[in-house]
Amino acid sequence: MRSKTRTTASSAGGMRFAMAAALAILLTGCAATTGAGDAGCASYAEARLGRPAAETVAEVPPDWADWIADLDDRMTGTCR
């Protein structure tokens, strides 16, 4: 069994930070592009206003972060 080295742990931390940063960027710019013409889109735009601060994304497990980013991307794309 291979044990984690300092380099491996550091790489994992860097990768997690990069994913969190990418997710934060995605979540930051989408509110302005969400349209208000559809009730579902208006509701989604309103819900996005109450989202937690982007800095807290690093606390989300990677699988959930990926799912959240995918969902937000799909909803934002649908509501443009």
Helix residue percentage: 55-70%
Class per helix and strand makeup: mainly alpha
**N-to-C terminal Cα separation, in Å?**
49 Å
Give the C-alpha Rg.
16 Å
Uncertain parts: none
Provide the number of structural domains: 1
Query: Looking at the structure, what is the overall shape?
Result: elongated
| Count of beta strands | 0
Mean pLDDT: 73
Main sheet record: none
Strand content: under 5%
Give an overview in words.
The chain is mainly alpha-helical. The chain has one domain (6-78). The chain has helices spanning 6-29, 39-49, 62-78. The longest helix has 24 residues, at 6-29. The mean pLDDT is 73.
What keywords describe this structure?
80 residues, mainly alpha, 3 helices, 65% helix
Give the structure's gist in a few sentences.
The chain has helices at residues 6-29, 39-49, 62-78. By secondary structure, the chain is mainly α.
Topology:
Blueprint: H1 6-29, H2 39-49, H3 62-78
Helix pairs in contact: 1-3
